[in-house]
Structure prediction request, 382 residues.
Amino acid sequence: MTQIKCLLIFLMAFLTAGMLSAEIIDDDTPVPAVGDWGGPDRVLTAAEFEQWIRGRKVFDKDWRQSEGLGSPDMNADSCRACHQKPVIGAGGLLDTNVTQFGNDNGGLGPFIALPGGPVASKLRRPDTPGREDADASADIFEQRQTPSVLGAGAIDSIFEAQIFANEDPMDVNGDGVRGVARIVDVGGGVLEAGRFGWKGQIPKVSDFVRDALGGELGMTVFDDGRGFGLLSDGDAIADPEMPIQEYNDLIFYNQHLAPPPRGGGQVAAGEVLFESVGCATCHTPELLGSNGPVPLYSNLLLHDIHEDDFRGMAEPQAPVGFYKTPPLWGLRKSAPYLHDGRATTIVQAIEMHFDEANLSRQNYLNLTTQEREDLLLFLNDL
Prediction:
């Protein structure tokens, strides 16, 4: 009887897990209003609306091994599995974090990339011989928080000149801030400014989607000549594994997700303080795009805001501690904060700003109680 009960409990747990991981989007799922959380970024034509709906279903789709899922490792079986808080297409909680690893000689440096890295995948196909998630010599492990893709198309539209205009790697103006753009070679010596990824390593929305299909799902894609995405793997499924129609629909959906809307509160006093304490130096309120101003509250530049003894991952042009300034739109619904999610509140995130942000953090700490409340009221409107 005990064995039977155990079997029943196991089956219930298995079935419950299956139900929790099932698709949450179907033909009857309402579409949020234009400009609302999880809605389209503009009024779409009838054909565009149909493609957006199809793309949302692809974003939500639970892929299977028979379709190419896993290569052999993966972090999830769908885009929605990580991008769903507070709506599909947004970010994720701590349980969606992935781990990156490397070796920094016990903190003495230099950082060394290790074979099989930098990401230790969460899941492995059961029909594939196992291997270690990380090289045995790894001594640095870093968490990465799932970024939101809401408004990604608007970020894609920002003119590169707007990004470069705010660079100051030598701190010529003496404000302690040394922002620099990440330059990415997308093939044939063509250089573009990075806009996506915590290290600013990805220039366009389509590149971001391709990179995630390979790195997160283990799905192969066709070669578009830009160097992003997994082109082949070792399974028995013919490459590319992602059907071109579903691929195009998925790209369109990501390009036309609306930015998070503002709360609409009376926050003028806090916005003035945001500027005066220096937050807007990096969290630039808006950058100009092809369709007008993009109010993302980021300059899309790399900055180091960490303490001197911080240990983390390094990439070409993005040393240890350097991360792209995250957009603040949607801040009130995107906890936890920072690249690894270690700040659970906005106040904690502010207090964890060092190095290039030392002056801004100190200015914040010097505010009166009322001024801090006004500033936080503004931030909670984003």
Residues 97 and 145 are 5 Å apart (CA to CA). The longest helix spans residues 2-21.
